[in-house]
Fold this protein.
Amino acid sequence: MKYLISLLVIILLLVGALYGVLFTSPGNNLLKPVIEKKIAAQVPLPTTLETFVLRPDRFEIALKIGEDTRIEAKGTMNLMAQSVDATYLVDIKELANLQKLIGQKLNGPFKTNGTIKGDQKMMHIDGVSDVAGSATDYHLALRNFSPENLKAKIAHLHIDRLLHMVNQPQYAEGEVDIEADIPSLNMKNLKGNVVTTIAKGLVHPAPVKSDFNLSIPANLTFKGNIHTRLTGTKAISNVDFVTSIASLKSKAVTYDISDGSLATDYHLHVPNLDDLYFVTNQHMKGKITVTGDVKVAKNGLEATAHSDTLGGAFDAIVKNNKVNVKIKNIQTVALTDMLLYPHIFDSRANMNLDYDTVTQQGVMHAELLNGQILPNKMSFMLRQMANFDITREVYERTTLDTKIDRKVLHSDLYMKSKLTEISSKNGLVDLDKQYIDTTINVKLKKMFIPVVLKGKLSNPEVKIDSKGLIKAKAKEELEKRLPDNIKKSPAGGLLKKLF
């Protein structure tokens, strides 16, 4: 019995000593520098534990990190039930000063405060924040300290402030509203909905030009609505995004967090093609609608595009850096209209293009059916000099084979009608300089006439080799005027050879 009493006394003394260390003011004063030292060992910034109060039923902590970050928490607790009912505050005057702690450069202020209630089995966190100038409130539930569900509402988040916060150039401004209701945060079994609304969007041209070398129009605005459904490991979004240049819609943008893959359909409408000059570097007129699908996975990129345009159809398939384009039955006049080029040839065209986006090289084969040359500088000059109207000829099949080297095209052309034959070898077109330099060999009946096209692509200078034309006409006149007996004589043969 004596030993049992002695053991009981020792236990009571230990409990009393532990209580004195943990839950009294003198004990807290002893623990405070120890805890402060432990925190300082984990945080690569000067830290001060300004307040440390621990009692059996309550606590209060205030921690200062660096010069302008403060974390506070205070409330009641039940050690037996392992429960807590407390308030908290995180007040960061400048995120950039925490780069050593968070391992990433962030900017600007951040503040959030709220309450924590519950126990180990289920805990609820309710708070508010002004992140990126927004009015944000959130509710997060944790089961066994793991996030289980989330509700959040973010109103008027400023895009420019958010970009500044994450240390990105301020490419745009605008406001974003987000409503999230996610009953399950299990990354293998997500459930919930997120509605995002973008308004008052405006692109800032200067940083876009600096970083991407794109001369964005000064008044490029945007807005959008995105409704995202979370299911399993996937986030499936319906997107309606509108800019002052184009509109983009998708019924299902599907992102799978398990493998990082992305798949989407799209519907792109551009009401005025000339608004895309900053991308194409080519003035155009008209409108276009393109539909297709995009898939991005570990094995690369796959995409399709389709458009019913120019009286025909356009189809493209992209696999990583390989591009194949097929054009069927388009009107060449409509194409030259779209590109703001003069009308030269009227026909229906089919084309096949293979192109490598990495090497920027490719080949193109085009066939133009039942074509006619339209009145232009060349046809006018031929009519004046050769007394021949080439615009009356019908070219049942014209072929054009082109090698592409970046923005320089080298083409071979062949076309034949009842009375003419036209060909060109290695004709040059520089799309970057909008320049053409090619010689077209024209055969009219028995005449051979080289025609040189050189200069600005939209309005090249046309030169006809008059020597060949004069020689052909002289030969024709000689044939008409020489008597038959002289034509058959040695002298007639000599004259023919001279021409």
User: Anything to note?
Assistant: The longest helix spans residues 2-22. The chain has eleven helices and 26 strands. Residues 1-18 have pLDDT under 50 and may be disordered. Residues 25 and 53 are 7 Å apart (CA to CA).
